[in-house]
Specification:
The protein has 343 residues and is α+β, with helices and mostly antiparallel strands. It is built from eight helices and 16 strands. It is 33% helix and 29% strand.
Length: 343
């Protein structure tokens, strides 16, 4: 077996109908049936019901085509992808991604505990089981094991899709994968499919999920408690820092106790103990729109603020914003807190 490049060792897939360019049925569908097609909840059983109503359905490699008389065009996007096509001959193309997605999600719940990952995008909906090996001999050994692990003929008979086993070498590693593409699956076949895949019974999976949810809830409570405690520590540190800053500002600057009656440059001491230098440039809808400079560390120490003569001097690129705002109510609260000073 050559694993230097991607090589498929095992494939099971069904046949496809021949392409039909003319519409093969004039069976008239109802609005409810068309709504089901473009709802994203279409199932194989819905298609069987359309066949019972004399619609013709042809299965191709990547989609099925419904031949009937539609009362309207179907929408193109289903399950986040453009899975539906209104054909010129009046038929509708439905990519397999728009069929039995709810069933595949149910299968994914069980197969996840067997190591399979459900990969779904605009072109595929496949359950992948893959392993990476450092040595070629180990990869070849696992490949032989994988080829006999399941009854693939029986599995293939339960689904519309394909089963592939392949190997590949990339970046010094050897990869072996089992890919089960489920285009659709009859509801009645799901229990046997899960049995052949050796999946855990639903009761056991439910118990595992409930235990995991209890762990997640305990973790969330712990994180929330830690967050609250950290907030309390932060508020205490901010209060000390703010009081120190307010003391320094009262010593060196004039405190503003009323609403300014003209354009102004002011300093606000925030609740987190940071200094915001504010320059008003217009008011709109009850808000002061301003540029702000957040005082952090040196070289922008409090003692240096009076050295700035022009507003543009207060524009260090890492901390200056030109579209900030503060409401009248917030500004008045800063004044009431004794946290506004002349600049």
């Amino acid at each position: 077996m050559n694993l230097n490049n991607k090589e498929t060792f095992f494939t099971l897939e069904g046949g496809c109908d021949k392409k039909n360019r003319l519409r093969r049925s004039d069976a008239r569908l109802t609005e409810q049936e068309v709504a089901r097609i473009d709802s994203g909840e279409l199932s194989l059983e819905d298609l069987d019901a359309l066949v019972a109503r004399k619609a013709k359905i042809f299965k191709y490699q990547t989609q099925i085509t419904i031949h009937a008389d539609f009362p309207r065009e179907v929408g193109d996007r289903v399950n986040d992808y453009a899975f539906l096509t209104n054909n010129k001959n009046g038929s509708v193309g439905v990519r397999y991604g728009a069929i039995d997605e709810a069933k595949r999600q149910r299968l994914a719940r069980f197969l996840d505990y067997e190591g399979f990952r459900y990969c779904r995008n605009s072109t595929q909906h496949v359950f992948n089981l893959w392993r990476r090996f450092n040595g070629r001999s180990k990869a070849v050994g696992y490949l032989g094991e994988l080829k006999t692990r399941y009854d693939y003929d029986a599995l293939r008979g339960l689904i519309y899709g394909r089963i592939d086993i392949y190997g590949q070498e990339a970046h010094g590693f050897y990869y072996v994968a089992l890919a089960i593409t489920v285009n659709a699956i009859p509801e009645a076949n799901i229990p046997e499919f899960l049995r052949l895949m050796r999946c855990k019974p639903e009761e056991e999976i439910t118990a595992i999920e409930e235990a995991k949810e209890l762990e997640r809830e305990a973790s969330r409570r712990k994180q929330e408690q830690e967050r609250i405690e950290q907030q309390e520590r932060d508020r205490a540190a901010w209060a000390i820092k703010r009081e120190k800053m307010l003391t320094e500002m009262r010593r060196d600057h004039r405190q503003i106790t009323d609403w300014p009656d003209s354009d102004f440059s002011l300093c606000l001491v925030t609740k987190t103990g940071r200094l915001v230098v504010v320059k008003q440039f217009r008011q709109k809808n009850g808000k002061i729109l301003f540029r702000k400079y957040i005082q952090k560390e040196d070289p922008y120490a409090l003692s240096r603020i009076p050295e700035y003569q022009k507003w543009n001097d207060l524009r260090p690129p890492h901390s200056c914003l030109d579209t900030c705002s503060i409401s009248d109510e917030q500004f008045r609260q800063f004044i009431a807190d004794g946290a506004v000073f002349a600049f």
